[in-house]
């Protein structure tokens, strides 16, 4: 009780709230925030998620929350059940990287960027997404802040410093527009957990995508996620680490990021063997023994879209891009779609400036394929939760996902030419059903697949 009173006094006089060191204090702290609306009861379990990433500045002409709210019917129509919003916080001006500044240079962790609207506008978006059957995940930047974040002057001890006492940028990154936080400082840890707690209550969001998660220590993630899970004890909490460390799963994250799988897919489309994809997948799941944990796979996101190119640029045009996405969506993964991807947008979108998508130019055939791929994933327990077995050749990604009596055989030709595939003995002279057409398919000893053709077969 004494700890609760001390925290309440601190809140009343300073307006600042910090999470505490033990479970009782953490509960008391959390209770100081008023829950906005009813928590969303239908957050998908981790394996069942499919994610749509929104670059708010590019998503609409207005580049704000309302622009996203207005197009939620489109996002829902894809069949996804998680809406992931890029950072919604005020952006730092000092040492800005140009344009409107990087959304990953956070000026204030507990405020809304006025460029996007108000807290009420964010709440409206979250509530509307919930009504349409989608959980909402916020991008959170725990590794660094903008140089004009108030902590720079008020709490310099929150930051890593050089031998002369100067706050430093994240080492080895070249991210000169941000300052590196110091996770040896317990007050910093508490302040970050406080901010994470704030949005769960104040905006009723359902989880976080943690930017640059590999740079933040395991002990903090374990502490933070435990606190957040206690708050969301009656609902699922979705936690995505933008990182590759497998210890993220042990600290409580549901997902890591498929950096290596994306890079391997690029290499495959440059001519290297398709078998590298199954090797990459095995590496990413090495020493992961919880079947609910997943790697998020993608053919594009805000970073690689701008730096590397669009899926249409990188993966053999429209047909090749969808052949690659099938593999990403079905090979022991949770898929992510970036805004504009499903309509065939072939533009490198900016996110330091406004760069609105032209929604009038839609590739209807491609859009229908994305919808069909996600729809089958939603229907198939084997794809979402099954066991993977790989049989790829140098040119064709081949694998099965199996759960109970349901087995799905995926074959995707990742070459811009017709390819003959010798079927493994266990699949020869067998009968399957085409998952998309319902037609019966008889397999003999070999199969000829046209350029970038894929087959999804069930039995």
Describe this structure in words.
The protein is an alpha/beta fold and 459 residues long. The chain is built from 17 helices and 18 strands. The strands form 4 sheets. The chain has an 8-stranded parallel beta sheet. A 6-stranded antiparallel beta sheet has the order 11-12-13-18-15-16. Helix 9 links the parallel strand 6 and strand 7. Helix 8 packs parallel to helix 9, helix 11 packs antiparallel against helix 12 and helix 15 runs parallel beside helix 16. The N terminus is likely disordered.
Features:
459 residues; 8-stranded parallel sheet; disordered N terminus; single chain; alpha/beta
**Which assembly state applies to the chains in this document?**
single chain
The gross shape turns out to be globular
User: How many strands in all?
Assistant: 18
Biggest sheet statistics: 8 strands, parallel
User: How are the strands ordered across the major sheet?
Assistant: 7-6-3-2-1-10-9-8
Question: How much strand?
Answer: 15-25%
